[in-house]
Structure formats: structure tokens, C-alpha cells
Structure prediction request, 106 residues.
Amino acid sequence: ADAVAGRKAESAWIIYREAIERGLVPEEIHGTIFWQIKSIMLAASSGSPVESKLSPFVYMKAKSAAKNFSLVELSQFSNNLVSMYHDAHRGKNNFELELEKFLLTI
Prediction:
């Protein structure tokens, strides 16, 4: 999640591949990435932890990461992650591969 927040595609990909090799399933990793994107979106569009409903620690990290993205990009990433998840469960794509591609494009 931190590599995604820092827009470090190569690091995110390496960490992803290591997690897959250790036996984590793409759904777990996807959930963590989606949570990170959602947190950044909330922090970017709010003025305080209270307003965002995030803990102060999460808010500060997400607010700092928000400088790496536009709100349009964050919205597109969020939409891509949701579509990817549902399409994979409908048999339309290979979830592991699609998530890998996503990480390489951040």
C-alpha cells in the first residue's frame, strides 16, 4: 500500500510478486490497494481527519500521498479496481495478472 501511495510502480510490483509467491491471494492484496486509494481520495477531498472519518495517522499519511495523484486519477484507479474485481469473478479476466498490470501503471 505504501508503494502505491508513493507511486512507486516497480516497488509495488516487486512486493506484489513476493506476496503472491508467499501464498497471498489477489483478493487480499486488491483489498489493501483499494483501501489505500480510497483513503487517499478521502484525505484529498477533506480538510481534517474528523471530516474524512479516517484516523489521524491514516489521514496524515493519505494526505501526504494525495500530492502524488489528481482526484481524476484516483477516481479512475478506484473504478479500475472495482471493475477488475467484478470482471475476474465473472470469469472475464485473470485477476492476478490484471492486478499486476494495474500496479505497473500507477
